[in-house]
Amino acid sequence: MGHSGAVWDQRAAIEISKDWNGIDQILLRSPRGGSARVSLHGGQVISWRNDKGEELLFTSAKAIFKPPKAIRGGIPICFPQFGNCGSLEQHGFARNKMWVIEENPPPLPPNDSNGKAFIDLLLKPSEEDLKGWPHSFEFRLRVSLAANGDLSMISRVRNINGKPFTYSFAYHTYLSVSDISEVRIEGLETLDYLDNLCQKERFTEQGDAITFESEVDRVYLSTPNVIAVLDHEKKRTFVIKKEGLPDVVVWNPWDKKSKAMADFGDEEYKYMLCVDGAAIEKPITIKPGEEWTGRLELSVVPSSYCSEYFDPHQRGF
Length: 317
Description:
Elements lengths: L13 E5 L5 E6 L5 E5 L4 E6 L27 E2 L21 E2 L14 E8 L3 H6 L4 E10 L4 E9 L5 E7 L2 E3 L6 E4 L5 E4 L5 E4 L11 E5 L5 E6 L4 E8 L3 E6 L1 H7 L11 E15 L4 E12 H7 L8
């Protein structure tokens, strides 16, 4: 190659192993030392570490990694519904199914693969699934890790049904924070939200940033494509960029609800915050042969750096 080792071998950055239940996990590595781990159980990102090896996602110490139970933490994929409505299990079935690695998926634009370690996963409905949700689909997921450690997820849902179908969707991202009372979200001020603690009643956000002192379970509507989550104690900021996902879910169960969840520690609410790119208020409908794409990109920057460049009204990627 003649670049004295400067060329990064994409293949060497991907490692497949089995977890203690015999389920395949894919480890993606960036040349600077960052990593992301994806389980075929749910197509779920279960770890994302920076180049210092610090874990950026929260996973409960009580999480159950055995299907058909969903994994409490990381980034579960909520499809074809978010929440609890109708006959499907809460948050849909995608996060409870076994996905497969797809060797030759339909191509994505070059900037979605150049210089990144990535894995392509595929979920198709089983006969059993079609009984509960009678729509044929192909759900393709690419998880990629850029050289600078940014994590991105691209979901493509194709309708291979004879008729249109409708679904809602969320990347249910559990961020790891130092202390929930030291965290604030910027980019959602002045927006309307549906409050799940008040029968989905609609309110307008009054705060100049969102902070936490009690249980929060909201769907913010018509949100900008860039949101920032500032962790004062760690002096770091998560920057969440999204595309095709108009809503943002903000969730922290606080103390009472934490005690009621079997797969969640009583005090763990202090160290996590869910901020999801989502499409909930206006579900997505795709016609036969059509494909929908929803993207999420997560990066972490020092908070001092963030305030200088972060513009919540900036559009797109």
